[in-house]
Design brief:
The chain is an alpha/beta fold. Helix 2 packs across helix 4, helix 3 runs antiparallel to helix 5 and helix 7 runs parallel beside helix 8. The longest helix has 22 residues. The chain is globular and about 65 Å long.
Length: about 450
């Protein structure tokens, strides 16, 4: 056991449940609640010194385990069953080392828990690998957090050779010989980053769109959100199966943004587009871009990137290549990205960017961030309506990975109750000013949340 290595001494986990102030639509499903998986991991070094780390992640089962045969409650229960098994895997782990080394070795034991759950619970369809990653991400986060706290350092100061001796070829293969993770991360966070505000398919754009006011003091429509937070980046959710509606929705968003930004005397702002995989083929996306360009050239020019527009199973749909679309705008892989192999397949199919998510794990996100930079891909960090500690975790990734354009954080829109206890401690992270998040605060011990 090396002088900087740790081993896992104990694991504890539990849940918190919150209701959304307004529903959000995922892949055609309106979601109004969230269950947080909260994890504590105690680590110990060779001299017997211990530290406790904390990790938290929304169990986004509608996104991670979409199903036409199972209910929301059933897919959530399956992910909670997996959480119990993942806890056992971490608790029984005898590996000592850096969190990246530990989780990297454990992954071979963790991923099969999805198949185990499918069999044990006699589910009519398999638990996806993505759902297992979401569950295990809270445990991985707690391990990284504990490691940083034991060494009295922010985690991003523990990713250099003094703590992590292996080069990237140990984790990613021979083409990464001589490269180290620290070559692809900044030890200090960017001082501030633009925030991507979500414009959901159900969200009101104008005062006349507000049918039932929420009345909680927060903005009720897009124009007010832009004014209150000084927004310059808007992520627009689209249907992917109604071309006319999708084009008109972007034009409507652009109309509101243009009116509001003129009032603010702001000249430049940007959009990302998210079809939630619902485009049947790339032809739909190309038709959409052509029509938008013809009907509203300014809106088209403001598109910064497009999230994965077609089905996540890339191998089952080899016809959905993105080469033509990616010549127009960066197209980033999201739901399909679960490992280096899936990243390489996406590149072969024409994807030119990567969306990192904390819910896929700190270890995996950091390793794939290094790969994305080596391959010169467009980079962004996406949200899973992260709140509380999970938002700190997600924002930390965005603030330390070079080239990330902006940070997405929509918990303040849909689930502010889960952020209430955090706002005073992290001013400017949970409350946005001039469209920017104050990421300079993300320098505490461990992952920086608690």
């Amino acid at each position: 056991m090396g002088s900087t290595d740790v081993r896992i001494r104990d694991v504890r986990f539990g849940y918190e449940h919150f209701r959304y102030r307004a529903p959000i639509k995922f892949g055609g499903v309106a979601l109004d609640r969230v269950t947080l998986l909260n994890v504590e991991i105690i680590v110990e070094n060779g001299t017997g010194t211990t530290a406790t780390g904390f990790g938290s992640m929304p169990l986004g089962n509608v996104w991670a385990f979409p199903s036409r045969q199972l209910s929301y409650e059933q897919t959530l229960a399956a992910m909670q069953w997996v959480a119990g098994r993942v806890a056992e895997k971490y608790r029984d782990c005898t590996i000592s080392g850096h969190p990246i080394a530990i989780t990297h070795q454990l992954e071979a034991e963790i991923l099969p828990t999805g198949e185990e759950c499918t069999k044990k619970q006699q589910l009519p369809e398999p638990v996806p690998a993505l759902a297992v990653l979401v569950v295990s991400s809270a445990f991985d986060a707690a391990l990284h957090d504990a490691y940083g706290k034991l060494h009295q350092l922010n985690c991003y100061h523990t990713y250099h050779r003094a703590f992590l001796p292996h080069d990237l070829d140990h984790y990613l293969g021979a083409e990464f010989v001589g490269l180290h993770l620290s070559d692809f991360l900044t030890p200090e966070p960017k001082p501030q980053m633009p925030l991507y505000h979500l414009v959901g398919a159900l969200d009101p754009l104008t005062p006349s769109d507000v049918r039932q006011p929420i009345g909680d003091g927060l903005p009720e429509h897009l124009g007010d959100w832009i004014l209150r937070d000084g927004l310059t980046h808007l992520k627009i959710k689209l249907n992917g199966d109604d071309l006319r509606w999708d084009v008109e929705r972007v034009i409507a968003v652009d109309r509101v943004a243009e009116q509001t930004q003129q009032h603010r005397q702001v000249d430049h702002w940007w959009y990302s587009l998210d079809f939630n995989e619902r485009c049947q083929n790339v032809g739909y996306l190309l038709d959409f871009l052509q029509q938008l360009r013809e009907q509203s050239p300014p809106a088209y020019e403001r598109i910064q990137y497009i999230e994965q527009p077609t089905a996540r199973d890339l191998q089952a749909h080899p016809e959905n290549t993105m080469h033509a679309a990616a010549r127009l705008k960066p197209v980033v892989i999201d739901e399909s990205l679960i490992d280096l192999e899936s990243l390489k397949l996406a590149m072969e199919m024409g994807y030119t960017g990567v969306a990192f998510k904390a819910c896929k794990g700190q270890t995996q996100s950091l390793l794939l961030a290094a790969a994305a930079q080596k391959y010169n891909l467009f980079r962004c960090v996406q949200d899973l309506t992260c709140v509380g500690a999970s938002l700190i975790h997600s924002a930390g990734l965005a603030a330390h990975i070079p080239g990330v354009a902006a940070i997405e954080a929509n918990g303040r829109q849909y689930c502010p109750a889960a952020n209430a206890a955090w706002e005073a401690k992290f001013p400017g992270v949970f409350t946005i000013r001039d469209g920017m998040m104050n990421t300079a605060l993300l320098n505490g011990l461990g992952l920086g949340a608690v």
